[in-house]
């Protein structure tokens, strides 16, 4: 016959094994969920990297176009400035000529 102490010991061992199995299964599920989340995060990071690369390309295109526009503005501003300077010189020369003409008329008469 089996002693009651050994039966109690067997029952305790059986309960301990069941608890260990339940805890191990719960730990395995948590590890699986963590692994799945890590894979999902890696996929999101890869997607973000792709988007950032496309944004970098867009910014580079915009910067180059702005550089071209800025260069054109500088050329146009330089041309306008040159024409403005020439116009001032022409008006100054015409005014000076008019002044000399009037002074010469004043002395002659």
Summarize the structure.
With 109 residues, the protein is an all-alpha fold.
Any overview of this molecule?
This protein has 109 residues and is mainly alpha-helical. 96% of the residues lie in helices and 0% in strands. It has one helix and no strands. The chain has one helix spanning 4-108. It is rod-shaped, with a radius of gyration of 46 Å. The termini are far apart. The mean pLDDT is 86.
List segments where confidence is low: pLDDT < 50 over at least 5 consecutive residues.
none
Distance between the ends: 158 Å
Chain-averaged pLDDT: 86
What's the SSE pattern? H
Shape descriptor: rod-shaped
Kindly state the percentage of residues in helix.
Answer: over 70%
Strand content: under 5%
Which radius of gyration do the C-alpha atoms yield? 46 Å
Structural class based on helices, strands and sheet pairing: mainly alpha
The overall strand count is 0
The major beta sheet can be summarized as: none
Number of helices: 1
